[in-house]
Design goal:
Elements lengths: L1 H18 L5 E3 L1 H10 L4 E4 L3 H6 L7 E2 L3 E2 L4 E2 L3 H8 L5 E5 L4 H12 L4 E5 L25 E3 L2 E3 L2
Parallel strand pairs: 1-7, 2-3, 2-6, 6-7
Antiparallel strand pairs: 4-5, 8-9
């Protein structure tokens, strides 16, 4: 199992090299889940706004720290400090946004602050938009991974 996870992380790092991300790598939702299941010390950091958590859903066990604030999507000035208060710079951190854009920005900010093992979750929680503007194409929810809205657990 450890070899399989090392291979997953290797692919994620390869994506980062190809894209010159500025942080360790990017994982598909299924890959991120496999890493979380195999590495108990890995931390899922959900960087969406509190409105998105409340209205769209949560991932069980995820740390929730806003990176940008709704409605103007202004940066949260103490984001890095808030992360550092809950995680170490050597921790394996997987960033989850709504799609990928904010996670990419947050990954660069954390890497610049000295966090060494930062990965983003491609497609994010809600995924990309379809031709009608609905976020039902891919993402954490569409992959059937655990999430909940209100009191009940949904997904796998």
């Amino acid at each position: 199992m450890n070899e399989a996870i090392e291979a997953v992380l290797g692919r994620a790092q390869g994506r980062a090299r190809e894209g010159a991300y500025g942080y360790c790598g990017s994982l598909t939702p299924a890959e991120a889940w496999a890493v979380l299941e195999a590495r108990s010390q890995a931390k899922l950091l959900d960087i969406r706004s509190w409105q998105e958590w409340a209205l769209v859903g949560h991932v069980p066990g995820a740390f929730e720290i806003e990176f940008r604030r709704f409605p103007d999507w202004s940066p949260v000035p103490d984001f890095v400090d808030a992360v550092q208060a809950r995680m170490g710079k050597g921790d394996l951190i997987l960033l989850l946004g709504r799609s990928t854009r904010r996670a990419h920005e947050a990954g660069r900010a954390l890497a610049a602050a000295g966090f060494r093992h930062v990965y983003i979750v491609l497609e994010g929680f809600e995924g990309e938009k379809d031709a009608h503007g609905r976020r039902i194409v891919n993402g954490w929810r569409q992959a059937g991974l655990p999430w909940y809205q209100g009191e009940g657990l949904l997904g796998s």
